[in-house]
Structures are given as structure tokens and as C-alpha cells.
Amino acid sequence: MDSPASDLGYGHQQQTWEGWNSWNGITSPAYSPTAFPAYSSSSGYQLHPNCTPQNGPAAMEPTAMQGSTGNSDYSQPVTAYWSPSQPHCNGVYKPASDARSPAQTSLQGNHLQPVIAKHSKLFLLSHARMFYLLGIVELQIDKSYPKSESRYGLDPQLLPSVVQVMNEDRAQWEGKIFDSEPKSSVPPLSSTSCTLEDKGNATSRFIRCTSYSFPIEAQSAQQSHLPLAAIFCPLARPQNKEKPVPVCNTGECVKGCGVCGAFMCPAMSWQDCGQRFYCPFCGKLTEVPWQSYQPTNKGQRVDQEKKPELSLGSYEILDTQKQGEPAVLLLAIDVTATAIRSGQLDIICQQLCSLLQTFDGGETDLRVGLITYDSRIHLYDLSPTLSQPHMMILTDTDEPELPVREGLLVSLKDCRHIVQSILEQIPLFDAEMQDSYGSQDLPVQAGLKILQAADCPGRLLIFHSSPLTESSEKQTSLGFFSSIKPKSIFQPPESSASLAKACVSQGCSVQLFVFSQPDVGGAWPGHVPFLTGGKLICYNSLQSELERERFHGDLRRCVDTDMAYRAQLRVFVSKELQVAGCYGAFLTGPESNCAVMAALDPHTALAFEFTHCKSLDETRGVAIQAVLSYSGFKGERRTRVHTVTLACSRSLIDTFRTSQAETLLTFYCKKMYCMALQRPLQCLREELQTEITEALACYRKHCSTTSVSPGQLVMPQFLKTLPVYINSLRKSEVLLPGLRSSVHQRLQLRSITVSMDTRSTAAQLYPLVLPLLVNAEGDSVPSMDVTLRCSASSLQSDHLYLLYSPLTLILWVGSQVSPQALTQLFNTASFLSLTSGEIKLPVLENSLAVRLRKFISILQSFAAVTLKLKVVKEGDSCDECVQRLLVEDRSPNGGASYADFLFHLHVSSLRRVVG
4Fe-4S ferredoxin-type domain: which residues (predicted)? Predict the structure, then answer.
């Protein structure tokens, strides 16, 4: 389907019923509002205001028609006749003219059969369907439709498509250069591979805004129901040969505002020949020190091109006067009897020995420390002056104190052989001793004490093999009526929150590797890792070759990832705005515009929401600045500054037309997943539906420039995929749990997703369906440029498909795939002999197998962890994992299909327009 222009509808062309002639002479039903179309009183059908669609999955079921009870709004009967020329009808139910542009189409289908007594031939089919939800007529709905089809007869293939939008954006920007200038246009999508150049505005790799034209008035912003927010990814890596962020020393930079503390940027305006500048973040003037004074020419300093803080939206300041301690690497290993008997301890130590061999000990100054634990803590003195390492045992684990401080952290180049010797001895510990499990928080407390004693940040890698235990706080709970019970399953226990705060203050990032199966309803150990910039990664058993390879890849990826320690992100915004909220995997700072983190990696993103204090200045626009202060790996203190300048407008149409669906999705995802700590999930799902309904109603009422009929869906060009994104978010396992989704899985999913950047969030909530185009010879050409809609109708039985999200990788095999393709991939020609489940593809040297392995390797590089490759045969019982990814269809957890959700949004927004 061709991409429709802005303000145009989507769907089928309306067709009139046979015998249609006129609306004249049709009277209003009793108790109908004057703004509603009248209907013949002789037909006996009345308006039912109590059939308003409800929020949530239940809303997608048809509501049985009851007797009209009405409310105060419908208490006065209307006897006047209605006609298409009636002045106050707003044209909402007026039958559309047959003569219109090809792009103006209406929502229509074949599964709806109107039951109308006398005037059934007077209605267009699309109008009858809307009148059903508005309570005017009753409809018989075909409930035998497939999951990929709509119960209201909409053709899913004619609805706005995420894939089509991505392809159009790729065709426009792929391989090209986008100049990021102040008050520039909407940037390319995050999925488009293009070069972004900083021309005075930070590129969209660092900052993405929900709209690039903010409303001037607060009332207009509230009316639009579009959040005014920005997504910050301050350490994002440059791509496509983009220039790295320039670095300058502290003394070389022009100082920023002396009142509010904002840093120098192109948004500052110079006055009095460069003697002072105006700060848009506080509205004050700041004098320029004579040491850094330069004259101005046409309002710009003459040295603008020589200084990145004057000409670029992104730059970094290296503080040469502050040098802290370099980051360290701490290894904490579970040595309980369970870990020893399972054989996993030996594998863990072997992998760690291999990891240490990869470091260049002759050049690196990396300091390492080693901890082992069961119900006690074992510390090791790694001093190279000792004839052999000393082990110290701490039995008091409630408030552990270090017996010594020297030798606990030693440069790897001086103690490599000592650490390897200990790792070789650890698997030989006595396994016959009685099982004694310690808390998984025990190594965190010990590692934190070591870092505090050395006054340095670092990474703490914990390898836990014994069963997870409840915290003492939860074990001593007073029961159901205890006041210390958490409000939500997502809320961390108080002990975990306190421990995470201490880690954040010290710059201790916790990475937890778990090798035991958690008990259902038991403790979940991920709160501390995710609140400190780390991760929780679980494995079934390291006895499996697949799991060993996963562990090796995750361990390598963890150590190789560049991290910023003791990070603090402060956000400044124009003085007419203020920060209303911040969302992400972090702890709030001392001020509302500040977030503090123990560590930050290049893929972590945070969301900040803004609200009006007073009217914006249209000439100055909106300035947003993010200042990240952090310590590098070597202990140097750095400050990275990102600034964007946006336009502002009195017209709401500019706000809508400069918004992007994927950025709004990322904001809503972070906000809702964070609000899940405090509010019921049902309320969050209802809020999502209400927000997008109000936004569509506002756009239809105030921004639509074309005469449209009720059957036409009116959406802004860049937001036409927002409904499918929001529906996917509403029915995600976090907000709508399924029967087979455990609490631990939902906690893990929420914690990972809430820190994702825009590209990963969009792929998580709308996965990629990548066809392997198999030809007659069994060959295949996988490509990222060819993607399909997330619907079962996209999967054909004679094809192979890769389904990818940042947390899932599935190879779907159709039942009619050629034996040649099966042989080249799996070394078997029989579909029946192929087994569904986790698999390692055999290393076969043919073109199909080689290209597929390379393609999977590319997808793995996008993910934060090493993904399991799972083969799913068409029709197998494990097909439910595929259904979860096909977000346009009805979901296994009861979530509505995209077509049904869009239809309800459309009707609900119409009701608000005429209400």
C-alpha cells in the first residue's frame, strides 16, 4: 500500500448499500444527544451510553446490548429531525461522498452483519460498525476469525505498517548524511543506517525528543496529550564513520552560566560584543572572564569554529586537575557444596582463567581482587611479595569488617600467576561438607567494603551456583497485614534498595551470573545488579555446551564493555519549562533534574519529561541540555555535554507532525515500567489507551485539514504506527502477564527493557521478522533490509524465518521447506526428524549455512547478552514463544490484536470529538 499523506485515512474504500438514497425524514431516537445522528424511532433502536468500550483485553469483546438507562447527559428527548445539512452535527456521521482522493479510505470489512429492522439499507457498512460501539445498533460478530484478523472485519494488511514506515525512512536516508542543526527537522529512525553530523545540535544518537516543535502554551500541550520529553543516551557510540565526540581540557573551554550551572553551548546568545551571554536555561546574563573574551561578528564569536563548545551540540571536558583511583575488577565465586558437586565450579574457574589470559598483563594497570563465599566470606591477599596467597575467613557476615586492606586489590600484571593458581585450587575444595547457603547479597557487601577501603569504583562479577535465598527482611515478615510488604512485585525489598544506594555512592557495578534454577515465588536477585548499571544473567546448567558458549560470550562482553563510573546526569531545560519526571534504571539524585548511577554503558538510555511553567518564547525556541559527569576507567574525571535546540509553535499540527512514534514508545515504555512499582497494572494499561485516544481525538478535531468521514482514520504522518506500538506495550508480559509467564521472567524483562535505547525498545516491542528467501536450489539470502509484519499471516509454510528481538532469537521452519534447504542448514532432509528447541547450528560449509551464521552473528552484536538460538517447527507445541513475538495478532496472554485495538481507538476518539 502506498504511504498516505498526513491527515489521510487508511483502509478500504467505502461502498454504499443497494437502495441507499437519503437521510431525510429519519427522526432521532429517544434520549439521543443532539450532536448524534438521528435514527428512525419506528425501528425501535435507542442510544445505549453504557456500551462504552472498556480498557484492557476485555474491551475487545463485544458488549451485550442492555436496556438504555442513560445518564444526565441524555435525559432530554430530542424530537427534531436530522439531516446532513443540520448545523451542529460536525459531519461526524454524515455519509462520505464517493468522490475523494484514492488515499482517503475507510475502515471496513466483511465479518460484520448489521441487524437493523427497517432502515438497514440506509447505512454504509463502516457506519453501522461504528454505531454498534456507540450503542445505536446491534451487530452480529463472527467469532471464528483467525488470530491475525479482526473481529470487526478490518483487513490487517491495509492498516499502517511499521515495516512500511521503516522501509520508507530507509529509502530516504540510507547511506546519506543528516545534518543535526538547531531547530532542525525530525531525524531519521533509529533503525536506519545513515551518518549523523553535528551542526550545532546533538545528534539523535544522544538525544531523541518526542516532538521537535513544542507547544508554546501549557494549555495546548495538555490538550494534545503528547508528552513533552527527551530520551538521553549520553555515551552512545558513533556509527557509520561519524566523528567521535571532541574532547577538550578544562582550561581551554569557555565557562558556562554562573547562575544555574549550565555549560557553554550554541544555545547561549552573545551580547555587548561578546562581553556577556544570555543563558536560556535560567534567563540570566553572565559576564565573560577577560581570559576567554573574544569579540563577536553578527552575534557569533570569531573563534566559534575553533571551539567545540561554541559550534557543536556535543563535546566532552577532561578535568586535568582531578584524578581519582582507576576502576578495579572484583571476582566473587560461590564455593558451596552444591556448586562443587554440580561440576559448575570447575567450568567457572576455567572460564575465568581464560579471561585473564586475554588481558595484556604487560601494559594494563587493571587491578583485580578475588572473593569466595558460602555462608562465610573468604578474602585473599594477592600480594606478590608473599610466598603463597593468604586466605582470610570472615564469619561475621551481618556487618563484615576487613581484617587487612593491603593485598586485596593488586595489579593484574603482578599477580596473574597467583590468581590463576587460586582458581585452579578452588574446584578442589571439600565437597563433603554440609550444605550451607549464604545470601546472594553477601559477596556484594564484601566487595563494597573492599572498594570503600580503596576509595575506588569498579565492577563486581558474582558467580552464584547455590539456590537463591530470601532476604532476612522478607523471612521475618509479619504476614499478609505487615506494613513492610511491597506495593508491587516489581518493587525491590528495602534491604536491596539500601544496598544498591551504597553501591551507587561508591561506583560499584554488580554483574550477577546465576547457574541455579530459581524457585517459583522465591527470591529474585536482580534488583541490586540492575540498579547499579549491571545485569542478571541466568543459565540452566554449564554442563551443556550451548550454555558454556553463552557464558563465555556474556563474560567476554561484560569485561569488554566501556563503562562510566560514579555517573551523574543533570538535565537543564529552557526557563519556561521544568522537569516533571525522570524514568529509567537509576536512583533519583538530590534534585528532580538529576539521576545518579554507579555505572553507565553506551546502550543505556534515560527519559526525562517536561512541563510548562509559562509560555515559551517562539523566537528563542526550546533548549535542552544533558550534562553527564563521570569517572573513566583510569580514574580521570570527565564531563560530557549534549545540547539540542527545538522549535516551538502555536499550532498543534506542528507538534504532531514533528513527533516520532518510536520515541514516544520508548518514553511510554520507561514511564509505565517505572510506574509499575507504585500503581496497579490495569490502571497503567488504561492510561496508555486513554492517552493515545485523546491524542488522536485532538488531532482529528484541531489539526485535520481535510474533510473526512467517520469511517476514516486520521493520524499524523510520523505517528501512524503509534497504535501498534502502544498495543504491543499494553499487552507485554510486564503489564499483562500470561498464564505461563513467571514472576522472575517479568522482573527480568522489566529491568532489561527499562534501560534500553530507542532502537532496542522498538525492536523489543515490535520484533523483526526476517525471511530467509529460499530459492529452488535451496539457497537463501538473509537481509536486514527485508522485514515482514509481525503477524502469523507473514509466515509461509515453504519458507524459513528469523524472528529477532534484543532478548529472543528464533529460527522458524515451515512444514513445506524443501529438503535441500533442511540438509544445508541442519544436515537432515526430513522435517519430522528436526527437533524444536535450543540448538547450535552444525558448521556446514555451504553458501546457505555460512550466510546464515554470519547473519546471526550480526544480530547477536545488537543484543546486550548472548542470545539462545531456538528452532521452532511449524505446528509444534512450543509455537507459543513465536506467537508472543507476532504482536499484530491476538497474544497468548489475552492481548488484543492490532486491528481490534485500532478500531476501538478510532471509535473512542470519535466519541470524544462529538462529546
Answer: 244-273
Q: Are residue 317 and residue 372 in the same domain, yes or no?
A: no
- Sheet containing 768-774, strands listed edge to edge, beginning at the edge strand earlier in sequence: 780-781, 768-774, 800-805, 808-813, 869-873, 837-838
pTM: 0.83
**Within 10 A of 214 (CB to CB), how many other CB atoms are there?**
27
| E strand or H helix that includes residue 726 | helix 722-730
* Pair (249, 224) in one structural domain: yes
Reference 665, options 753, 733, 581; nearest CA is 753
Q: Do strands 458-464 and 508-514 pair parallel, antiparallel, or not at all (unpaired)?
A: parallel
**How far is the C-alpha of 784 from the C-alpha of 193, rounded, in Å?**
11
Q: Which of 127-141, 276-290, 557-571 has the lowest mean pLDDT?
A: 127-141
8 A C-beta contact, residue 14 and residue 96: yes
Cβ burial 20-55 (10 Å sphere, 16+ → b, else e): eeebeebbbbebbeeebbbbbbebebbbbbebebeb
- Give me the sign of the Cα torsion angle 44, 50, 52, 57: negative
Who contacts 408 (Cβ-Cβ below 8 Å, separation ≥6)? 369, 379, 380, 381, 382, 402, 450, 453, 454
If asked whether residues 366 and 415 sit together in one domain, one would say: yes
Domain that holds residue 366: 328-473+506-560
pLDDT band for position 184 (cuts 50, 70, 90): confident
Whole-Å CA distances, 478 to 492, 493, 494: 18, 14, 15
Supply the CATH number for residue 800's domain. 3.40.20.10
742 touches 484 (CB < 8 A) = no
- Residue 682 placed within a domain: no
Secondary structure element (H or E) that encloses residue 567, with its range: strand 564-573
> How many other CB atoms are there within 10 angstroms of residue 117's CB atom?
11
Query: Do residue 810 and residue 838 come from a single domain?
Result: yes
Helices 743-753, 661-675: axis angle to 10 degrees equals 130
Please indicate, yes or no, if residue 634 is contained in any of the structural domains.
Answer: yes
| Three-point CA angle 138, 140, 143, nearest 5° | 140
Residues 781 and 876 in one domain: yes
pLDDT in tens, 627-679: 999 999 999 999 999 999 999 999 999 999 999 999 999 999 999 999 999 99
| SS3 state at 542 | coil
282 is written with which cell numbers? Answer: 535560567
- In sequence order, the 6+-apart residues with CB closer than 8 A to the CB of 85 are none
Question: Which residues have CB under 8 Å from 483's CB, separation 6+?
Answer: none
Say whether both 282 and 336 belong to one domain.
no
The answer as to whether 405 is a domain residue is yes
Residue 334 sits in the same domain as residue 313? no
* C-alpha–C-alpha distance, residues 779 and 272, integer Å: 70
DSSP class of residue 784 equals T
Q: State how many domains the chain has.
A: 3
Q: Of 766, 819, 651, which Cα lies nearest the Cα of 215?
A: 651
Tell me which residue of 831, 795, 832, 829 sits closest to 810, measured CA to CA: 795
In a domain, 360, yes or no: yes
Phi, psi of 701 (to 5 degrees): -80, -40
Indicate if 237 and 372 belong to the same structural domain.
no
Distance CA(168)–CA(869), nearest Å, equals: 30
What is the rounded radius of gyration, in angstroms, for the C-alpha atoms of the chain? Answer: 31
Residue 291, number of CB atoms within 10 A of its CB: 8
Residue 180 forms beta bridges with which residues?
A: 198
Q: Which residues of 788-816 are buried (b: 16+ CB within 10 A; e: fewer)?
A: bbbbbbbbeeebbbbbbbbbbbbbbbbee
Q: DSSP letters of 587-616? A: EE-SSTTEEEEEEE-TT--EEEEEEESS--
